[in-house]
Amino acid sequence: MSTDFERLAARDQTLAAMIQCWRERTDPNSIPGLVTTPGRRTRELTKTEVAKLAGISVKWYSKLENGEPAQFSDAILDRLAFTFRLNDAERLALYHHATGRAPAPRDTEPDAMAAMDADMQRLLDKMLPHPAYISDVAWNVVAHNNPSREMYPWVYERNIMRWAFLYPGAREQLVNWKESWAVPFLAQIRTAAAQYPDNEQLKKLVADILEGCPEAQELWDRHDFYEHPDGDIRHMRIPHGGGDEVPVRIMALAPLRNRQLRFIVAFHGV
């Protein structure tokens, strides 16, 4: 009995140390929409800021960083992994230490992965310095160039729509979140769901968004349809931008080898 207790205590201590280390290494200026002041005393995220970005209370987050026993949902752990920009190995460690199990595997359409090759990646890289990425029919990001990693947090979550609706930080980065982003995003999802009614990933995406975002249910009931954002100009806040709003023109393309893929290029400052 004592051996089990010691093992659990050691696991919690390791978890607390990891969480604190990840928080202290995260640059607040790299979080779009998180306005920092020149006189800021700390160079790392505060507990209050992490809790806000993860959509939980400071008390709840403190339990995790202090190694106290608690039931942490996958949603909370994924939002924390996103906030700290954890890589796959670090996210795996977070899950193992917090829950004793691995996270659920990330889904991607097999056809989307089959369509990706070195030439497609080179085409993405040719878009420099503009951020560019490719997503599948369920908005899983299957490839991106380096500017996308710097500018767009959703490449860490790996699903654009989950990030936009289920992560509190998205409302800070996406200017006029409801009308300029949430409304057309949901209309796009509804259009894709009508085109691919048997796609299980799309079904799960819709269910997760409607369950996790109260505003999404209201907007979903409007029955809007929107095929693509090609040519749209919207506004975002970018990392290290001091909270300034930047106009972004969206160019949406599709490779003929797989028209379910979305090749998106963003031109900032237009």
Low-pLDDT stretches are none
The number of helices is 14
Helix/strand order:
HHHHHHHEEHHHHHHHEEE
Strand content: 5-15%
Q: Helix/strand/pairing class, anyone?
A: alpha+beta
Topology, number of strands: 5
Strand order of the largest sheet: 2-1-5-4-3
- Report helical residue fraction: 40-55%
Question: Largest sheet, if any?
Answer: 5 strands, antiparallel
* Computed CA radius of gyration, to the nearest angstrom: 19 Å
What is the average per-residue confidence, as pLDDT, rounded to a whole number? 85
Shape: globular
Distance between the termini: 65 Å
Characterise the protein shown here.
This protein is of the alpha+beta class and 270 residues long. The chain has 14 helices and 5 strands. It has a 5-stranded antiparallel beta sheet with strand order 2-1-5-4-3. It is globular and about 50 Å long.
How is this fold's topology laid out?
Layout: H1 2-25, H2 47-54, H3 58-66, H4 74-83, H5 88-99, H6 110-115, H7 118-125, E1 132-135, E2 141-144, H8 146-151, H9 154-157, H10 160-166, H11 169-173, H12 177-195, H13 200-212, H14 214-220, E3 233-237, E4 245-253, E5 262-268
Antiparallel strand pairs: 1-2, 1-5, 3-4, 4-5
What are the key terms here?
270 residues; 14 helices; 5-stranded antiparallel sheet; alpha+beta
Task: Offer a concise description of the structure.
The chain is built from 14 helices and five strands. By secondary structure, it is of the alpha+beta class. Helix 2 (47-54) crosses helix 3.
